[in-house]
Amino acid sequence: MEPVSSEPAASLTASERTFDQDLPSRTERRTAPRTWETPPAPVPPPHLDDYQSIVGSAVLDELRFLARDLKGKTLKMVNSTAVGGGVAEMLNRLVPLLGELEVSTHWDVITGGNDFFEVTKAFHNALHGAEYELTRHAQEIFLTYNEQNRQRMQFNEDVIVIHDPQPAALIRARQDGQARWIWRCHIDLSNPHPQVWGFLRPFIEQYDAAIFSSQSFARQLPIPQYLFYPCIDPLSEKNKPLDDNFVQKVCEEFGVDRSRPVVTQVSRFDRLKDPVGVVQAFKLARKYVDCQLLLAGGGASDDPEGAIVLQEVKEAAGDDPDIIILDLPPWCALEINALQQASTLIVQKSIKEGFGLTVTEALWKGKPTIASAVGGIPNQVIDKRTGMLVHSVEGCAFQIRYLLTHSEFAAQLGRNGREHVKENFLMTTNVRRWLLLMQIVLGVATV
Amino acid sequence: MSAAETLQRAPVKPFYFNTSAHLLRITKYKANTLAELLEALRECPEDSIFQHTFQTLEEHHFLGAGFSNDFAHWALAACNEASLAEALASVDVREFTSVSELRTRFVQILESYLRDNPESSPRAADETFYFCASDMVVMPTSFRANSLNEFAEGIRRVSVHSIHHHFIEARLRIKLMSNDFSQWLHEDAGLTETARSLNRIDIYTATLENVRQQIVRIVERALT
Fold this sequence. Notes:
The structure holds 2 protein chains of 2 kinds. Chain A is of the alpha/beta class. Chain A contains 16 helices and 13 strands. Classes of the chains: A alpha/beta, B alpha+beta. β7 (225-227) of chain A pairs antiparallel with β1 of chain B.
């Protein structure tokens, strides 16, 4: 972790300062950096009633009604990791909520050696379109570990959900019983490596249904395909409301001056997130409007490529005192939350994106958001209604200028964005989708 | 019959507030050009037409103006065909009591536009239009109205999904240019004028929350 933050700039108003004037460099002006040695203890998951103040009692009543017809039915979730990553994070919240609704849910994690996870990591990248040569050896490793897990696990539930490609071959455990098997694909299959997809596809076709995170991620399959948008938990550390004193404290520690506009991108240091493009857009915009840029991310300490990208970003930023670059460890959710809440605008200028949950987080916080029209972002950012879609550095720069000078319009985007998330991308909506799916595949619902 | 007279007696039968929940399915139909959109519009299942018209209104209920249906949105955002988008956006779902009539209307608009603008037909869109469909589950709520007061209270407290279910989706079920609320007010509570006033609320210039407030105001007027 390396906070490369700065002290607040000397408090000049926009009219007083010349935007490109020489100011003390970041290093000269920063306070003693905060350090995090270890992750904090995990926070217990919330209860269903805790969501009432956010979504209203009618929405919770709907969940209880949908669950009532599923009483006695059982669900199993299988994925490849219990901690880390979006899927585990989501299951850690979803499974207790389904249990509270008396839909008995078991969560199993497959096991495998390093060789298995190396193969599945390569599959993952290949399914996103990367070059790869699928060898017979890799196929054997994949199938051997899936078979070991099949023999170790029990599959007695009414609905069995297999997450992502790693455990996809567990479908071989399917017997002629009543159980319904669902494949939940969290990755973008719009342009998969033909060999890898050709190897996996016969397994997928044996499922009763598949679930994708965006229409554009799906493949033509002979089974029903459902659309489950990813979701955020409004009560999680990263999204819950924060006391303004805490937000102020975090800003002071990182040298963010809340008296001036703050433009923020939260993303790991990865070229696909185009942090250098964000710096360029910021510099173009700042010729006309006073603002600071905050790039908050991670991945530089445990990923060699991340470290290179971080260095590129620092070089692009130069010694500009208004650019604050933070490389944060993954357990800084509260600090990220505070920085998002302190931001005037949020940018997500990705070149390629999955669903883009950082966009969801920004919209939920009511922040006017500028984002690239890639991956699942257009599902969230409806251009000029819930945010602004852009396609270039120049477009991004223009929208920064526009939104910083049209505060009423920006505020309306923020309000619409929050409502959009409330309706479509919150954990409670996700619970509803799972209950509906169970009703539909088990024939409980009349559709 | 005036509202005051009607309130002397209880409604003939209670109003049961229901709601519906929808699960999105991805279909095999998609379009990268307006020609492909037309072809898919002709062939896609009816629940796709429902999803991209009636249902999308619910999903975007918080947008007060400017969002009509997904076809119009795509024509503008991905194809930059402003006049086509206007024509598609002008289709008011409340003028249709069947999805097949609604499909016919969209097909007519697109056929006519492409006849006049043949160069637009094969032009590649910026984004693909994916036809989805929705599986719907109807469920009861805990709200039931035995009086106009209870009806107003129910309107205040049910979810916007319930408002959409009774006020917008209903016409496909009852096959009338009306809605469940107006039907009950007219047939069971004898409040014909109130029923008509409700049916005149413009769903395209208001959010569903605004619609809820307008319904409450109209019913409150009948109570005074």
